[in-house]
Amino acid sequence: MVLRAMYSGVSGLRAEGEALGVVGDNIANTNTVGFKSQRAIFQDVLGHSILAGTSASLPGSGVRIGKIQQMFNQGTLSNTGVATDLALNGDGFFVVNGTVDGISSNFYTRAGQFVLDKDGFLTNAGGLKVQGYEANADGTFQAAPSSVKAPTSSLPAHATEAITVTANLDASDAIPTSGTPPVALAFDAQDPTNTSNFSTSITVYDSLGTSHSVDVYFAKTGDNTWDYHALADGDELNPPVAGQNVEVGLGTLAFTTDGALNTLTTTTAISLNFGGGATQAQPVTLDFGTPISGGGTGLDGTTQFASPASISAQSQDGYASGDFSGVSVDGQGVVMGLYTNGQKLAISQLAIAKFRSNDGLGRAGQNLWIETRDSGTAALGTAASGGRAAVSSGALEGSNVDLAEEFVGLITHQRSFSANSKTITTADEMLQELINIKR
Length: 439
Hints:
Layout: H1 2-28, E1 38-46, E2 60-70, E3 77-79, E4 86-89, E5 93-100, E6 103-109, E7 115-116, E8 122-123, E9 129-134, E10 146-147, E11 162-170, E12 177-178, E13 183-184, E14 198-205, E15 211-222, E16 225-233, E17 245-255, E18 261-268, E19 270-272, E20 282-287, E21 303-305, E22 310-316, E23 324-329, E24 334-339, E25 344-354, E26 362-365, E27 368-370, E28 379-382, E29 390-393, E30 395-397, H2 403-438
Parallel strand pairs: 11-20, 11-21
Antiparallel strand pairs: 1-2, 3-30, 4-29, 5-6, 5-9, 5-25, 7-8, 9-10, 9-25, 11-22, 12-13, 14-15, 15-16, 16-17, 17-18, 19-20, 23-24, 24-25, 25-28, 26-27
Helix pairs in contact: 1-2
């Protein structure tokens, strides 16, 4: 029994030494981004078989470390302001692909310190490529993940194809007139201000990315009826019309007695012919909202209420060429390419991996994990879906190590180590007494 006590003490020293190693690893990684702490799970060791009929009163043979458990509770997010620094708020892992210690595979990480390399790939500090679902031209994303790569070429110019205007036309305005008695004025493209009630100006782009101005004038023609006139500068057209405004579009807006857009009639569809080598006959649609006759409410765009005329929103879909200037990432992990012309185009959507058992993942070093039989196969999906974490851009997830708790554990394991060493010295003294009896 004395020898049993000595060996029990030895097992305690061994177990506490391993536990101190776990605590030391946690403390050492206090500032490691995305690190998940571990804890040692102790198990007693039987000194006999557990076969049926064995006495339960026999003493044990000490202790051992049964498992080193990984703790995947959320770490604190800290803002960095760096667009490619990403953090996961919830369950899941970023997916990176490459070779680590001779193993080429997908690896999984919570450390989102990513950068764009010289080839445009989004990579981690070890050069592993972040995986995502590449964007298609129509705005959807591919089904199979691939390496996230930002374009390195310039974004070509896009000619304006559609203009949207959301406005209110003042129902109390009078029809433009002149003379005594007053006579209704016909709209004059060379004197648009005095022959209309309200106007707005919109910048449009030709196929080469050159900007031009199109002015839209609204002239009241009767109760609840307005004409719109789209004008372009004749000097910019092909062939040019020097010093003249040229009407490039014409139509009629009719409203209900409640101010909703009832019908929209296009008399002359807009077709722009700019010079300078740009594409000719550039068609442009002018959207004032969905009229009641088109199945809408007539209130989602241009209206006519008895309040001052105003433009609440207007937009067009053209732009000049631009150079790539960086990326941004939203909460769903959509990586957007940013360009100097103000455009943002989707590049990819980050793949987020989820496992049945995070604790079963194997540590691969370098802030990486690899799937194992115990973890189950990675279920890839997109952020903020299927229980996966949302992505925070410009932030990093810190280590989840609690220093106060680790220091308490350090003291506890140290005391236990000392107590086990005392068991050994006590057993040694008892053996010495036995030897002395023989003498």
